[in-house]
Amino acid sequence: MQKEISQAVIRRMPRYYRYLGELLDDGVERISSNELSVRMKVTASQIRQDLNNFGGFGQQGYGYNVQYLYEEIGKILGLDRQHNIIVVGAGNMGQALANYVKFEKRGFVITGLFDVNPALAGLSVRGIEIHMMDELPEFLKTQRVDIAVLTLPKEKAEQAAEKLVELGIHAIWNFAHLDLELPDDVVVENVHLSDSLMQLSYNIVRRQDDK
Amino acid sequence: MQKEISQAVIRRMPRYYRYLGELLDDGVERISSNELSVRMKVTASQIRQDLNNFGGFGQQGYGYNVQYLYEEIGKILGLDRQHNIIVVGAGNMGQALANYVKFEKRGFVITGLFDVNPALAGLSVRGIEIHMMDELPEFLKTQRVDIAVLTLPKEKAEQAAEKLVELGIHAIWNFAHLDLELPDDVVVENVHLSDSLMQLSYNIVRRQDDK
DNA sequence: TAGATTGTTAATCGATTAACAATC
DNA sequence: TAGATTGTTAATCGATTAACAATC
């Protein structure tokens, strides 16, 4: 088992990936930690320190090859493989995510939508069928699912999460406004939109008070 | 001007608010930092340290009054006032957010949707009209807008953000997949969904590799 | 009053930044 | 080779945890 890498570092990796992708699009071939630090508004030291958690991707006197580093970070983030995704909760948010095609380019493929609302049964979003929750066991028997996106209201989310884990799901992208209590081997990533909005609100109020 | 409070602390405040709200719903009158720490899986020390950034809300030998603390954190987060919001980008994500009524309960009221796509002109979501971007100056002249939600694709987002700031917007909730370069007095809160998904992906891959 | 628990200071831990020897 | 820039160790800074005196 490799040494544990702090979540602070992990959180920065997608941002590096994004900037390197832009550099690649701009036809930039090599970049030094210093140049990159100016663009990204972080220290060059942090960039080198972060990358060296995963390996020595650079070369003294030269810097980093953009293409190579981009691909390596992609691999670190698991973007070199396909992730099959189901969306549990086919309301507005679930449908919006299902319609978002950019994820697919990165290997995140939505293969099914699920809901409890019978009014949605048989409908589909961008060609992806909406199933009822009771079809889930059969669905998971016949195909691999790597990630379940949880976009149910919080009253239904806890129970659905437990069901998902019971059926063998090991990764949940949780949009419900609660902390899921699940076994340790289940990976959960939370998107708490209202927390984010409150943070914004705090910063607005503070700016006004400071004046 | 009060002393600067770290963003690490701010990020935790909405979570305290959520747990206190649940306690309130459960009819709990008082709670000690220790009891709360068990529920929230953080240290009691951190709770007391965090809260004391804003004031002494507790009482020795008693703990914290749930109702009182809930309200005080609400005030800190600016939930005691109304925030008028416009959504710029009336695609799937914009419409999903406009349909999400829970924000309204916390004082975040969406008063208009904007887009550049003429096909959407005149339509409305949950009674909120979709305007064209060129109506924005007039709209902002006639009513107060505190927050602009940016749900445009990244190619259009930068320009729209500049326009918004030019027209007097000081707070942006940014869902576009880029870092906005805006003046210091503009508050930006980012929701980078693909970053979040990549973090999840990283943790999935790592768990598999560890085995 | 005695017991409980805060508010706050001090100690520890971890993350960031600086410095520089290694090396391309 | 000389110059540039990494990889990595050491120093600093900030955040978290522990401890305890203050006090309800």
From TrEMBL, chains A, B:
Residues 15-54 bind DNA. GO terms for biological process: negative regulation of DNA-templated transcription; response to redox state. NAD(+) binds at G89, A90, G91, N92, M93, G94. GO terms for cellular component: cytoplasm. The keyword DNA-binding applies. It holds the Pfam family Put_DNA-bind_N. SUPFAM superfamilies: NAD(P)-binding Rossmann-fold domains, Winged helix' DNA-binding domain. It is found in: Cytoplasm. Belongs to the transcriptional regulatory Rex family. Homodimer. Modulates transcription in response to changes in cellular NADH/NAD(+) redox state. This is Redox-sensing transcriptional repressor Rex. It comes from Eubacterium ramulus ATCC 29099.
